[in-house]
Amino acid sequence: MSEINRVWRLRKRPVGELANDVLSLEEEAIPAPSEGEFLVRMNYLSLDPTNRIWMSDMVQYMPPVELNAPMRGLICGTVKESKHTGFSEGDIVSGLGVWADYQIGSPATMNKMGDTGAMPVVDAFGTFALVGPTAYFGLLDVGQPKEGETVVVSGAAGAVGSIVGQIAKIKGCRVVGIAGSEEKCNWIKNDLGFDASINYKTENVAEALAQACPDGIDVYFDNVGGEILDACLKLMNLKGRIPTCGLISGYNATDPVPGPYNYGMMLMQRLRIEGFIVTDYMERYPEALSHLGKWMGEGKIKVRQDIFDGLENALEILKKLYTGGNQGKLIVRVEDVS
Amino acid sequence: MSEINRVWRLRKRPVGELANDVLSLEEEAIPAPSEGEFLVRMNYLSLDPTNRIWMSDMVQYMPPVELNAPMRGLICGTVKESKHTGFSEGDIVSGLGVWADYQIGSPATMNKMGDTGAMPVVDAFGTFALVGPTAYFGLLDVGQPKEGETVVVSGAAGAVGSIVGQIAKIKGCRVVGIAGSEEKCNWIKNDLGFDASINYKTENVAEALAQACPDGIDVYFDNVGGEILDACLKLMNLKGRIPTCGLISGYNATDPVPGPYNYGMMLMQRLRIEGFIVTDYMERYPEALSHLGKWMGEGKIKVRQDIFDGLENALEILKKLYTGGNQGKLIVRVEDVS
Q1: A64 at the B interface (CB within 8 A)?
Q2: Three-state DSSP class for A325?
Q3: Do both A192 and A143 map to the same domain?
Q4: Domain ranges, residue B141
Q5: Residue in A closest to B256 by C-alpha
Q6: Per-residue model confidence as pLDDT tens digits over A166-209
Q7: Residues A152 and A267 in one domain
Q8: Of A262, A265, A270, the CB nearest to B277
Q9: Residues 6+ positions from A326 with CB-CB distance below 8 Å
Q10: What is the pTM of this model?
């Protein structure tokens, strides 16, 4: 066990694009678990759009990270020392932790991963911990797509969006994905079976959407907000639904971001726009995991992960999320599970 | 029977505030009913915010009125001549008609009013035809308020808003109304029993709301959109609901109107924003009318109507809706029911 514990601490609330001085990497002592806790060695750190929200002091669904506190993150790690009877040295756990080599866990924040079968732990962590259930509940519970309907998803090559589109295909929908590069568009169309793809960086999204959605849009799964939301609103069918999973286009903004100019469509077409957070569905995780596992086993859902090495690179890697520089679920590998 | 039929025709799509040349009043022949139709003498014309939408060519929930066609409106009238076996001379009918002394009706667009008991026909028409059921279904079905929750309504002294607030009180909620004059604020607070009122013309709405809603907002019944929606979004509680009935603040706008700046709250607080139109609830009208009738009989719901005389004044009277110049449901009286 290394004697050094590297800990990323939040130093500034981010303003605009993520700057290098919002976090600092410190060398600190390895903490000792109290009764009912255990010490976790991080194996993998999940980087997600919500990290940027936690750094800010905007109103949010969890308390923001306090200034100078360790940065919060979804982690997967190995128990090194346990003072909790339910956890033993060597257990693989995942849950809400911090960006640090070593940290204290407890059942309040972390669960055992369980047997991942033939799937490598990093893949199971990347898919099942957050993004798979987010796609599953957001699309099916909030969006309620019906066979034959048209589903549009933004951030379509992203970790959540790519699964959303594949579930919508399983449910018999026409699926149109919006992504930010030719490579991403080709991937969702050719490898994942989306019916159409739109490159928002090179195409006129409103025109391309109108072409790709000749019967209008019934469900728009929103990961981004902004101009793409506006373009979708314009094409929404009567009683259309907009599950709102993220508004990433506005997270780095320094000025107030106006809501959609076509907001009036929600009255004219009697739309339902509904925000959701996967943590509200914790009780129903087994349902999502059993379906996702089955579909992945049948090859109906494919995932791709972008795994980068080194906790010291976490901030640089996180920036990719807001520039579209990643391809698939972003994971930082600190040390592979042995 | 007068030989002259005055008909308001749409001449221009309105841009900005309603101008006098968007409609013209013509003298025309009285139409003759074909088989299955009847001739209706207008008694009352309902003026509603949606009239402005029908004049425009924005995307909307019914086809816009065609240029040079008679202006569409909700009317109450008396059958003067019938070629439909289900309707007889003297029947009082209401439904979707046009702004004209005489017009053709059929069961596709108009229904018999039925017995209004002790209630004058004009009151029953004003309350039951549109605004009462709108308030009823919008608040209860879409908003789903629970006892003890805080309900905020804008346009609170308006025809729909005043009923929304009173139903919310019946359901045991704390009710805060936003209106545009001291007189209106006093009326909803002192006569209708709202817990608090805010005059958006003289008060800082965001500050006044924060004071009036110490436990946040659970349901915001939106009639206006714009800055008031933004102020409410900021205070919405987890899993709050925003039934969207109207966005009147934007109807007269000439430039694109941005959506709410606090749109991100719908993600952070997992809000549900849902547009609705009362016509979607036609099948359930009896349920609404029986409850509304009972509550009105018990004095738990009070309404006030603003009745103006003369079809020739309809356009001038309609303008009051967008300037806050009316007090209660706007009705044009052409000729009282005899």
Answers
A1: no
A2: coil
A3: yes
A4: 128-280
A5: A261
A6: 999 999 999 999 999 999 999 999 999 999 999 999 999 999 99
A7: yes
A8: A270
A9: A158, A306, A317, A320
A10: 0.85
